[in-house]
Amino acid sequence: MGRKEKIARSIVRAITEINEVRKRPGSPLASILALFSTLFSLYHLVLRKIRPADFAKLRRHHWDINDNNYVQSFQQEDGYEAREPPLKAIGDMGFSGSTFYSTADQKYLVKSLPRHSEHSFFSEDLLTPYVQYMASHPRALLVRICDFLAATGPSIGRVLRSAPSHHIVMDNIMHGREEAKRKGEADWENWDLKPASYFYPERDIAGGALTSEATKKQLADEFHDKIVLRREQAEDFFSSLEQDTRLLAEHNAVDYSLFLVRMKAPHQDAAPMRPRQTESDPATVPARPPSGPPTLPSWRTGVASADGKHIFRASILDFFWAKHKVRAKAMTILIKLWNVLISRHGDMSITTTPDEYRQRFLRMCREIVEIIDD
């Protein structure tokens, strides 16, 4: 069993043992062997849930996620053609060293948070405000975090950092893509959007000649098109963005992104749009909406564009970089020295102020929207 498989097994065990006491070995020898296995494991860390009651309340009472269905997504079933493992690694994500896993049913993603500055910010600063905010803002664009896992107890793997010590379980707004592909529908497009006007060393130093194309591809995408919305739809979208980013700015978060998904609307189902509709009106989504957890049509499940050509989903991701953390302070000092001594490129997205990043982020989001007045 490889590294990623062992990490996945640790995650699955933490999720599926809800409300259960871990079985104790039946003999002293078995207990000693289990202890040594834990202590000397490089990748299979013992994970526990952080604030499980808070996340369970969000799932049950605010997001209408059934406990049994949630756990079932992390268990292997015979129904899948290839009998896939319950968690599948889907690659490294960007420069943070994070890895992503997807459940076999594509409903949830698990992202590792290997940097202390990121998981400590979430657990110590943002977790309580996030839980309270998501409970009172059911249509928020902030990604829905369903669980937060952390390594517990001593082990060599934890000391050597051979396996991530923290993970978040997230709602997957790409849920339904594989089913659409099996039906022969056009593949979905997606973009991970951040303000492009910031200084990105990989792109801006020597015109990017010093960095490989693979590295540059990990930078933020650019959306060279428009989301065509009616004014009511656009105002709902902008209002959610304003409120969500205000929470992030108040807690010093920067460098978050807008994850945008676009799919073609099925022509056979695209009925003429009625005027004066908002995203909360079920008629804004064609008769066969994209697969997704049950809820009113929203930016999670799909909002139909005003021209009837596309259905969009959107979510705010990666809000774990905080300006007051040591790593962020060190990077800020380095970039200031770079601008003084070498070249005036300005701030990076991780060294700017939270309010300034928020304004550029909101401007970017407004620029990709085209409003149609009825």
TrEMBL record:
Domain called PIPK: residue spans: 1-369
Q: Where is the composition biased (Pro residues)?
A: 287-296
Task: Report the GO molecular function annotations.
Answer: 1-phosphatidylinositol-4-phosphate 5-kinase activity; ATP binding
Which terms under GO biological process does the entry name?
A: phosphatidylinositol phosphate biosynthetic process
List the transmembrane segments. 29-47
Domain of life from the UniProt record? Eukaryota
Which keywords describe this protein according to UniProt?
ATP-binding, Kinase, Membrane, Nucleotide-binding, Transferase, Transmembrane, Transmembrane helix
Q: How is this protein named in the record?
A: PIPK domain-containing protein
